[in-house]
Inverse folding.
């Protein structure tokens, strides 16, 4: 087990290194000068040269890449060209809201997807299954931003249950959670649709296993057999999707 984990970590490190090299090369190939972008088109050449030296843009590309890797290793992500502030500080400031929002959305999507997948798998080919699959297809097709606007229009503007924007801070946890509810729902429903479809497929695959037939032969109903014996064996692909969704939700919330 330890050897497998070490191999996976080495594979992850190599993948990240290759991805970083490709991204760095693409950024270098793209036209434009960050220093001239920050100073404007009317900047004097000596001013541009001074800023390039300050940002480290006057050194060879390979040296800049190695400096960037070294900075990443110690948590120095550089300076934002747009906001002219350290990137690490910007990420840290946003994590106070983005991380709870991502966890909130992931909890909602899991709470919605698991029961829906269990119902659909237990009633495969029947009305509940068709209804759940239709709802998940709609959830996948509806854009997040459009659904978010509908939520704001209904619950914030028409009903006045939530605020249309802003975040009050964590001094009042209940007010903070309330402010995150509409964004969390808008992020959670499309992810719940994907998760429900994946879990339904995994549960249907489990239905053909011998231990499910044995559980049914002992008198368990299909929902009972799925809940007691099928869910744990169907969680491997589901946990993979959950990890990917958390990364997607956190990255989207930070951006």
């Amino acid at each position: 087990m330890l050897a497998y984990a070490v191999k996976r970590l080495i594979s992850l490190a190599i993948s990240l290194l290759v991805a970083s090299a490709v991204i760095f090369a693409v950024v270098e190939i793209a036209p434009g000068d960050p220093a001239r972008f920050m100073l404007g088109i009317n900047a004097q050449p000596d001013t541009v040269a001074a800023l390039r030296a300050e940002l480290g843009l006057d050194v060879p590309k390979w040296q800049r890449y190695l400096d960037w890797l070294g900075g990443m290793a110690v948590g120095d992500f550089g300076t934002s060209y747009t906001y002219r502030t350290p990137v690490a500080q910007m990420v840290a400031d946003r994590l106070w809201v983005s991380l709870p929002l991502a966890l909130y959305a992931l909890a909602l999507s899991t709470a919605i997807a698991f029961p829906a997948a269990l119902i659909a798998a237990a009633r495969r080919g029947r009305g509940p299954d068709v209804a759940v699959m239709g709802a998940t297809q709609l959830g996948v097709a509806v854009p997040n931003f459009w659904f978010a606007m509908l939520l704001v229009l209904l619950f914030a503007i028409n009903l006045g249950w939530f605020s249309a924007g802003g975040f009050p801070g964590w001094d009042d946890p209940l007010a903070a959670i309330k402010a995150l509810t509409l964004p969390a729902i808008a992020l959670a429903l499309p992810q719940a649709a994907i998760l429900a479809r994946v879990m339904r497929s995994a549960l249907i695959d489990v239905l053909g296993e011998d231990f499910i037939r044995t559980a049914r032969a002992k008198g368990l109903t299909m929902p009972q057999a799925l809940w007691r014996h099928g869910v744990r064996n169907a969680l491997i692909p589901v946990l993979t999707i959950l990890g990917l969704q958390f990364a997607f939700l956190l990255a989207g919330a930070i951006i």
Summary: The longest helix spans residues 87-122. Residues 2-86 form one domain. The radius of gyration is 25 Å. The mean pLDDT is 79.
